[in-house]
Amino acid sequence: QVQLVESGGGLVQSGGSLTLACAASGSIISINVVGWYRQAPGKQRELVADITSTARTSYVDTVKGRFTISRDYAKNTVYLQMNSLKPEDTAVYYCKASNIIVRGGQRIGDTWGQGTQVTVSS
User: Fold this and answer.
1) Which residues contact 109 (CB under 8 A, 6 or more apart)?
2) 82 near 66, Cβ under 8 Å?
3) Would you call 94 helix, strand, or coil by DSSP?
4) Strands 116-121, 91-102: parallel, antiparallel or unpaired by DSSP?
5) pLDDT at residue 1 above 90?
6) Which of 52, 62, 95, 101 is most buried, by the most CB atoms less than 10 A from its CB?
7) Distances (CA, A) of 51 to 43, 60, 70, 79, 80
8) Is 89 helix (H, G, I), strand (E, B) or coil?
9) Using one digit for the tens of pLDDT, what is the confidence trace for 98-107?
């Protein structure tokens, strides 16, 4: 019923920038929280940033001041602007939507996108 599609990943040099997008589709009435996660090879998936329906944001310490999460409610899209990228930011980036309500009032569980690769070269 609900799908998330990430885009915007790629290869960038250290110090460069990328903007990721997470577009939600389906019979969506509301999404409470959308988070960006990342998983590097051999490491656990970690929460990078999230944003609530009231635009409250939070960030992991390692990206504070470099990454900005934002939300376009009309487009059901959440963005992650990533500046001053470092090689250690290299990972597959996933978005997750939580507390989703669809047409008819049904609540949908956590939904993940398929991921987009971000590679930062030194």
Assistant:
1) 100
2) yes
3) strand
4) antiparallel
5) no
6) 95
7) 24, 12, 7, 10, 10
8) helix
9) 999 999 999 9
Separation CA 22–CA 9 (nearest Å): 11
Cα separations in angstroms, 109 against 11, 21, 33, 65, 73: 32, 21, 12, 31, 20
Task: Kindly report, residue by residue over 6-25, the tens digit of the pLDDT.
Answer: 999 999 999 999 999 999 99
Q: Which residues pair with 26 in a beta bridge?
A: 2
- For 71-96, the pLDDT digits (tens) are 998 999 999 999 999 999 999 999 99
- In this structure, what DSSP letter does residue 106 have? P
| The pair of three-digit structure tokens given for residue 102, joined into one six-digit string | 């669809």
